[in-house]
Amino acid sequence: MRYLRRLERIYLVSIFLSMVGLFTLNVIAREVGGTFASQLAWVEEAVRLMNIFLVFGALGLALERGRHVGIDTLRDALPERSRTIVRKIIDAVGFLFSAYMAYLAYLLVFFVLGTGQRSPTLDLPMGWVYMAPVLGFSLLSLRYLLSFLSVIDRFSRQNENDETSSIEGVQK
């Protein structure tokens, strides 16, 4: 898992920095103007597609770090045994849902590739865009499965984040 986390971080940082670099180049080209700016019409579409891969690529890491939105007031008020059962149910449902979404996205990749759709400025087959949900939901389902099997404890990270936020709020 350590190698997967490192690979995910490198992937996400690389995409984000590439997006920043491309947008910076695009802004400079617009300021300079001329024909150079019109040659960079593809940048906005490229950044938009990269953003899709960035968002879906971060799903697994966000879940593992307890950064997904959740209503935990009722869950945390339960007795320890009931809380453990509820958490296992949440992980099982999350795993099944994420795995199913990854499967649907996988089918969508081949469907859209079969239609022959291509992006307007990049001229890429649009089916490859749907690999982002395949990747993201696969990583998300892996994290739910690992949490269900108690390999990772994603709920303790939520409590740590809450405590850290409270401490930071007091210090300010």
From TrEMBL:
Highest taxon above the source species: Bacteria
Enumerate the InterPro entries for this protein: DctQ (IPR055348), TRAP_DctQ (IPR007387)
* Entry membrane topology: Multi-pass membrane protein
Query: Where does this one sit in the cell?
Result: Cell inner membrane
Keywords in alphabetical order, please. Answer: Cell inner membrane, Cell membrane, Membrane, Transmembrane, Transmembrane helix, Transport
Q: Does the keyword Cell membrane apply?
A: yes
Pfam families assigned to the protein according to its UniProt record, in alphabetical order = DctQ
The membrane-spanning stretches of this chain are: 12-29, 49-68, 89-113, 125-146
Give all residue intervals belonging to the Tripartite ATP-independent periplasmic transporters DctQ component domain.
19-152
Protein family membership:
Belongs to the TRAP transporter small permease family.
Subunit and interaction comment: The complex comprises the extracytoplasmic solute receptor protein and the two transmembrane proteins.
Q: What does this protein do?
A: Part of the tripartite ATP-independent periplasmic (TRAP) transport system.
* Record-given protein name: TRAP transporter small permease protein
Q: Which organism is it from?
A: Roseibium algae
Identify the taxonomic lineage of the organism of origin: Bacteria, Pseudomonadati, Pseudomonadota, Alphaproteobacteria, Hyphomicrobiales
